[in-house]
Design brief:
Elements: H1 7-14, E1 22-23, E2 27-28, H2 29-34, H3 37-41, E3 50-55, H4 59-71, E4 76-81, H5 86-90, H6 101-114, E5 118-127, H7 133-145, E6 150-158, H8 165-168, H9 176-185, E7 190-194, H10 200-206, E8 212-214, H11 217-221, H12 229-234, H13 243-259, H14 264-268, H15 281-288, H16 291-294, H17 301-305
Parallel strand pairs: 1-3, 2-3, 3-4, 4-5, 5-6, 6-7, 7-8
Length: about 325
Amino acid sequence: MLDWTDRHYRYFARLITRDTWLYTEMVTTGALMHGDVERHLRFDEAEHPIALQLGGSDPQELARCAKLAEAWGYDEVNLNVGCPSERVQKGAFGACLMAEPELVADCVKAMRDACGIDVTVKHRIGIDAIEDYAFVRDFVGRIRDAGCSTFIVHARNAILKGLSPKENREIPPLKYDYAYRLKRDFPELEILLNGGVKSNDEIADHLTQVDGVMVGREAYHNPWLMAEWDERFYGEAGRGLGRDDVARAMLPYIAREIAAGNKLRNIARHILGLYQGVPGARNWRRTLSDAALLDGANETLLLDALPRAPRAEAGCA
């Protein structure tokens, strides 16, 4: 979710759901070792619970970054062993690491030794033509032995050459049963399923087989999907905000960001889907994606962008 689940999107998502775990976009160890740590790790306290997702393959560097994650207040640090991007592979991390379970185990152990927060792993079910369930079973078993107890399973193979990251999310077939089998084979582990989930009913169905579900792009494009998660999946009272309430709740945040030198366009792009499926949503999307209107605009542009068509959504102002 590079360039998608940044801190602006996560603050927005937290206005919709209070209990859902939020994950950062993947941050490389190199970016933290040699770049602007504050830019990559800063987040709002409202974002808890929040996990930092790391990309890397050097155990010592990952250990230092895990320690940084703990120092900055993250609740979890997640090692990405699932990204199929060729650019990521050139850095010797991502899905290609599934071919080196001993190295991944060393990375996980080093991270666990360096910090006191949970260390989790996100991975695919196979790479290239390796489609045998035994491959992912043995991979998970080896990483479990290194001390990892939570695995996020993107239920597709990663094709390391010849497919773009987008094609890797669409062409390799989904095999949810592999994640289900992992839970049966490792009942002591926390197994979360990822990939292709588009509805709350689908989430509910998967939760009869695994411990959790990670939703990525659907939650980004259709964020109101999250509005019932607290009550339906956590047994907690929801935020009780309607879509208009969420839009207005973003105003103070945007004002602070603009005062700090940020641009409205950097935040507005993440909230275009708020009114997905609601009459009048086009005005919202059109206004907040208009470069001329965004240029020099402040938070009040959101009020001009609110859908004008009457609607009968409970909780909407």
